[in-house]
Amino acid sequence: MAVSTNLRGIGAVLLATGAFVANDSCMKLALSDAPPFQVLVMRGIAACLWCLPVVLFAGFGRDLPKTFNRWVLLRSFSEVFAILSFILALAKMPIADVTAIAQTAPLIVLIGTWLIWGDKIGTLRFFLIAVGITGAILVAQPGGDAASPFAIFGFFCAVGAAGRDIATRKVPSGTPALIVTFSTLLTVMLSALVCLLLFETPVQPTLRHAGLMAVAGIFLMCGHAFIFLAYRMAPARVVAPFNYAFMLWAGLSGLLLFNEVPNALAIGGMTLILLAGLAVVMLEGRTRQGERASPAA
After folding, report:
1. Helix (H), strand (E) at residue 232
2. Which residues, at least 6 apart from 196, have a Cβ–Cβ distance to it below 8 Å?
3. How far apart are CA 44 and CA 70, in angstroms?
4. What DSSP state is assigned to residue 108?
5. What does the pLDDT look like over 209-254, one tens digit per residue?
């Protein structure tokens, strides 16, 4: 039963990463002629219009007050920090590079669950975390010709995403995934609206913007639902490393949609991040085998 649950959690992460990258691709296309916070507001409106009817149709209308549960809100505001940082980086950097830097989030999750919940990590996992962060630095290339000052927002995104995933553990068990998803969408949209009013001059939306944001809204709703379910179905140590599928989806999107090819250092960094994640997966499998064997010893 535990193996089946873990596999469902891993499958949910893979679906979530694909949905999020599809959403990001629509966002980047819209960012070519619209400011970042306005794009977030338009996407948020579309996503909420998709999500709310689904919530009501699924019979969760009476659960809407749970949107304001403190742990649901903490998770949502962590996502606000992550997505605002991500959109600022995405507007100025290749999608694969931003995504790779943000993929330090699963490593930060491991550190966070160790510091907050007391989960065991071990020396080898700490080493792998260091390898993954080194890879992210190679992607960012601070001081290099290909470096972008906006890369720092990729790291901020990783911190926010890790906070989101850690907070998921404390969301009350009776809270439907769709309610958590709607809370996230609504909180991000309202936060982006505040930033738009404070920092940007909006442009006239076009039919192209509307179409892109409608598609992005669907993918975003699905991504949030699947990532929430993943961390509810399986432990963070099992599902977190599979967030690295983001890089594969993002690399494919960057190549096919934006003709973006990372340089050698960035590819090397992405490889380090991917290898570190896979090593954590293998280490987790060995640890679980050892735990199952211990009672019989």
Report:
1. helix 207-233
2. 35, 37, 38, 40, 41, 202
3. 21
4. H
5. 999 999 998 898 888 788 888 878 887 777 867 777 888 888 888 8
